[in-house]
Specification:
The complex is a heterodimer of chains A (about 110) and B (about 110). Chain A has about 110 residues and is an all-beta fold. Chain A is about 0% helix and about 45% strand. In chain A, a hairpin with a 3-residue loop joins strand 5 and strand 6. Chain B is mainly β and about 110 residues long. In chain B, the strands form two sheets. In chain B, strands 2, 4, 5, 6, 9, 10 and 11 form a seven-stranded mixed sheet that branches. The chains are: A mainly beta (about 110), B mainly beta (about 110). At the A-B interface, strand 5 and strand 9 of A face strand 5 and strand 10 of B.
């Protein structure tokens, strides 16, 4: 199985500042079709996860452009610029390269 | 609007069986692969498995394939998860998903 390791476990950010979350994969997530199968989700308190980023760097519909993602085949970074109150929650990375699908352990973002 | 509504959760004794349902609306259910994902109380996200749009093929997490069965009834736009011989570690919130869209989840607690 592909193991996704997120860091840090939690991050505390002053509103208006930036935050970065790392996701490292045990295997390249670059598919034979040239697509990097890495996804980012945000789970706000008490809510279901929602998609933020698909195929490593594409913003999902309705997601503000304060969110961005980049990376290589195995190392990825989600960046949140000018953090707002609504960004609080747990961030997960996940892949859809092969079976079984797996997720990272999550990173909790809190406000200072 | 896509809606996924899970039901069937609750308190169940170890060793028992339980069947979860997910009623879909807002899209042509029979056109889509569907999945189940669970989240433990400690917030770990685990992919359970998925099923092809016509129900002819399924994939499972290796650790769960002997106890969990995914099925669907396209006439009723409903996805199912049959859980057998449940264990305390199956305590989780279970989500029905269509691609990157998630239902609100249903809680299952396994305890005597």
């Amino acid at each position: 199985d592909i193991v996704l390791t997120q860091a840090p476990l939690s991050v505390s950010v002053t509103p208006g500042e930036s935050a970065s979350i790392s996701c490292r994969s045990s295997k390249s997530l670059l598919s034979s079709k040239g697509i990097t199968s890495l996804y980012w989700y945000l789970q706000r308190p008490g809510k279901s996860p929602q998609l933020l980023i698909y195929q490593m760097s594409n913003l999902a519909s309705g997601v503000p452009d304060r969110f961005s993602s980049s990376g290589s085949e195995t190392d990825f970074t989600l960046k949140i610029s000018k953090v707002e109150t609504e960004d609080v929650g747990v961030y997960y990375c996940g892949h859809r390269l092969e079976y079984p699908r797996t997720f990272g352990g999550g990173t909790k973002l809190e406000l200072k | 609007e896509v809606q996924l509504v899970e039901s069937g959760g609750g308190l169940v004794q170890p060793g028992a069986s339980l069947k979860l349902s997910c009623v879909a609306s807002g899209f042509t259910f029979s056109d889509y692969w569907m999945s189940w994902v669970r989240q433990t109380p400690g917030k770990t996200m685990e992919w359970i498995g998925d099923i092809k749009y016509d129900g002819s093929y399924t994939n499972y997490a290796p650790s769960l394939k002997n106890r969990f069965t995914i099925s669907r009834d396209n006439a009723k736009s409903t996805l199912y998860l049959q859980m057998s011989n449940v264990r305390s570690e199956d305590t989780a919130t279970y989500y029905c998903t269509r691609g990157h869209q998630w239902g609100q989840g249903v809680m299952v607690t396994v305890s005597s």
